[in-house]
Amino acid sequence: MQLDLAIESFTQYIQLEKRYSPNTLLAYQNDLAQFQIFIQSIEPKIEIEQIKPSYVKSWMASLKNEEQADARTIRRKISSLKSFFKFHLKESNVENSPVANIILPKMKKRLPSFLTENEAQKMEEISIDEDNWKDRNKQLILELLYETGMRRNELIEIKTADLDSYNAQVKVLGKGNKERFVPLSKNLLESMINYLQDRPEMSNQQPNLLVLPNGKKLYPKYVYNLVTEILSNVTTSKKKSPHVLRHTFATQLLNNGADLNAVKELLGHANLAATQMYTHNTIEKLKEVFKQAHPKA
């Protein structure tokens, strides 16, 4: 099978059957397109069963030396290739995967960026203009991200029908189309109900809960810009993305004694390993308490 056709069939599979999010789909497409350009510079009419491990290693070296890609980026791109060849192994289009025994570059552990308790307090104290719809969006977006730990795309895709006011919870569609229910505080539930009642008239036919002033659904860059604008006023940290609020949510829960498995479920993580990265911050807090309180510290 020609490489371009193989990429096309895999893309259709993850889009139509796996139903990956648009962002995830785009990431796979970009990684595979980049790999295709490199491979076809070596063998213009190469078929996927002709791709050797040495070609993959050469691509990795090219990413590192010519494009200055870091270990995290290279690992992600190889992960895309692994998924690609795993699909074609299943479809019997190849007998072996050329990435099966590829050794990935080691990655430095990066601690998640999060707001301190003082910074989070400052964020909550930011005043808004109730008559300005952008400000109303700011308020509810911040509350949802900070108080539930949901991802940006999960927030954007919340439907009005997902809000269960009786049980004070909202249904969230996470990665891999996995549903979970997230509990809502009394104040957050009230904010969501008020927001729904005050939505612009033109948004009546819009199934998504959060809308723009023109009644259309939010888009990722809009949410990113709003959050970045607010966090710029409360923290000096370099990272000011919506994900910082997710990290803050998880870190504060663990710092206050929440069970790790419970935090995993709230975040919608597939496995506990993804949640364990937040325990480092908890350990750092314990060290701080030890230094302040123990006579031998």
From TrEMBL:
One of its GO terms (cellular component) is cytoplasm. GO terms for biological process: cell division; chromosome segregation; DNA integration; DNA recombination. The keyword DNA-binding applies. Its main location: cytoplasm. Keywords: Cell cycle, Cell division, Chromosome partition, Cytoplasm, DNA integration, DNA recombination, DNA-binding. Residues 1-89 form the Core-binding (CB) domain. Residues 110-291 form the Tyr recombinase domain. Coiled coil: none annotated. One of its GO terms (molecular function) is DNA binding. Pfam families: Phage_int_SAM_1, Phage_integrase. It is found in: Cytoplasm. This is Tyrosine-type recombinase/integrase. It comes from Rhizosphaericola mali.
